[in-house]
């Protein structure tokens, strides 16, 4: 297949950002340029560098990493020789967009780098048919609704009220996924160069939204048993940031659930520090065991102070093909965000909003869909737990009470080594550095989604166990490139 040359429009990677992503890239026993080349390619496999990304100039990266220009030039040359980098004089060096074709004997890859379920059928098709029939009621107008379709906002607000957080439609703004929500909030509460507090580890999509707004994330590491409120208190006061992001319900990627007492105390800490908490509830509806505590915003006594803003999404509980998210905030904030949005993405597709309104607007349909999705997730979780205990007994993990993935400690093996070895055996994984603010350490967990069918999970774990029995010294091949998000 003919290789496509990258265009001048390839995403340019900031030198400082790339230096942070590389983290501790040097490896004992390896020449510096080989270690740098391997670390750069690992960022591509982890999904932290996308294909066609434009890398910094050799001199700029050398200065940022405090190495010689020869080291960077040799690393780039090695990647070019392996077909992983394309350089054009006067334009720059780009991650190669195409992978080499697999051999006929190569196994079909199993992608466990994405934690998302297939669509809930037949409900999605029925909702889509109804939405298509109703679309004509909107086609006489311009079709742009910066705050979202009113009927969808009503349905989302009703669900919050049902969960113990009284909400009206004026407090809801519909966004292009949770990513669109975080992008808007980052611009509302921060400016380039500002610092914002985040959990560590955390979801890389949220980090990308902050960095695109020029904001520097400041991590607060989770303990094995949950949130360290003393560390949160210290960091909130030290950074003097205006916003902090967290996932209290089945935290990504650990699966932890914040208990009632910590929710109450953390909201009080934020209010005292004058910080707005942004709670990511993307997977909150996927509780597989006990009832959830109330939403984090329910612990804000006035609910008008702006101490807690909530972000939700249809991508996990319903289907990731519906790129619809939302923000719950006080009404003045929603109005401000809707005005600010006109300079960004303006609105969400009307048809997608109508589809979700049909799924959420009928309480009976909503209950059927959520029960169906929870049962699928529960079956996948229980299958994966049994497989890991049988095939990889040295690995340890907490069985999550909800969400879509399991966070497994890799038994003393580097998670990046595990991901590399798995890739050579046809399984794509996201290793812990993918979820760290600056990459690098710690590096002893992998995220394992249980969203695939049981037979696929069984084959994935079988391959993974086989990969860890094989030698781990070989470099990953081009055909193993990971596209994780």
TrEMBL record:
Residues 30-98 form the HTH gntR-type domain. The lineage of its organism: Bacteria, Bacillati, Actinomycetota, Actinomycetes, Kitasatosporales. CDD domains: AAT_like, WHTH_GntR. In the C-terminal section; belongs to the class-I pyridoxal-phosphate-dependent aminotransferase family. One of its GO terms (molecular function) is DNA-binding transcription factor activity. PROSITE patterns: HTH_GNTR (PS50949). This is GntR family transcriptional regulator. Keywords: DNA-binding, Pyridoxal phosphate, Transcription, Transcription regulation. SMART domains: HTH_GNTR. Gene3D superfamilies: Type I PLP-dependent aspartate aminotransferase-like (Major domain) (3.40.640.10), Winged helix-like DNA-binding domain superfamily/Winged helix DNA-binding domain (1.10.10.10). SUPFAM superfamilies: PLP-dependent transferases (SSF53383), Winged helix' DNA-binding domain (SSF46785).
């Amino acid at each position: 297949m003919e290789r496509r040359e990258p265009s001048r429009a390839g995403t340019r990677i900031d030198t400082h950002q790339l230096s942070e992503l590389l983290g501790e890239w040097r490896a004992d026993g390896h020449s510096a340029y080989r270690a740098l080349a391997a670390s750069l390619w690992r960022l591509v496999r982890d999904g932290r560098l996308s294909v066609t990304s434009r890398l910094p100039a050799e001199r700029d990266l050398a200065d940022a990493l405090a190495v010689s220009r020869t080291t960077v030039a040799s690393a780039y040359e090695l990647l070019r020789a392996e077909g992983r980098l394309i350089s054009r004089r006067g334009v720059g060096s780009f991650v190669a967009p195409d992978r080499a074709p697999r051999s006929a004997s190569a196994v079909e890859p199993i992608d466990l780098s994405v934690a998302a379920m297939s669509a809930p059928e037949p409900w999605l098709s029925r909702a889509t048919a109804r939405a298509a029939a109703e679309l004509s009621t909107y086609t006489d107008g311009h079709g742009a609704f910066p705050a979202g379709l009113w009927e969808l906002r009503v349905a989302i607000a009703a669900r919050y009220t049902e969960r113990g957080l009284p909400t009206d439609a004026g407090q809801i703004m519909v966004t292009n996924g949770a990513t669109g929500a975080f992008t808007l909030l980052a611009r509302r509460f921060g400016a380039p160069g500002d610092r914002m507090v985040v959990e560590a580890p955390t979801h890389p999509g949220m980090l990308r939204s902050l960095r695109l707004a020029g904001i520097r994330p400041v991590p607060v590491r989770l303990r094995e048993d949950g949130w360290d409120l003393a560390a949160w208190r210290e960091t909130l006061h030290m950074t003097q940031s205006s916003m902090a992001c967290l996932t209290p319900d089945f935290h990504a990627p650990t699966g932890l659930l914040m208990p009632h007492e910590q929710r109450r105390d953390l909201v009080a800490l934020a209010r005292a520090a004058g910080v707005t908490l942004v709670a990511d509830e993307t997977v909150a509806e996927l509780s597989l065991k006990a009832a959830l505590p109330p939403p984090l915003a329910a612990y804000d006594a006035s609910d008008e102070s702006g101490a807690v803003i909530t972000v939700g999404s249809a991508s996990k509980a319903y289907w990731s093909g519906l790129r619809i998210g939302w923000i719950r905030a006080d009404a003045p904030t929603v109005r401000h965000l809707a005005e600010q949005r006109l300079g960004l993405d303006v609105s969400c597709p009307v048809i997608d909003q109508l589809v979700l309104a049909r799924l959420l607007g009928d309480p009976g349909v909503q209950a059927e869909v959520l029960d169906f999705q929870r049962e699928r997730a529960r079956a996948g979780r229980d299958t994966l737990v049994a497989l890991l205990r049988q095939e990889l007994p040295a690995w340890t993990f907490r069985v999550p009470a909800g969400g879509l993935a399991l966070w497994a400690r890799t038994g003393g093996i580097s998670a990046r080594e595990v991901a590399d070895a798995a890739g050579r055996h046809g399984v794509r994984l996201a290793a812990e550095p993918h979820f760290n603010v600056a990459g690098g350490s710690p590096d002893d967990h992998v995220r394992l989604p249980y969203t695939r069918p049981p037979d696929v999970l069984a084959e994935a774990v079988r391959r993974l166990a086989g990969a860890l029995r094989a030698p781990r010294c070989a470099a990953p091949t081009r055909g193993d490139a990971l596209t994780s998000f």
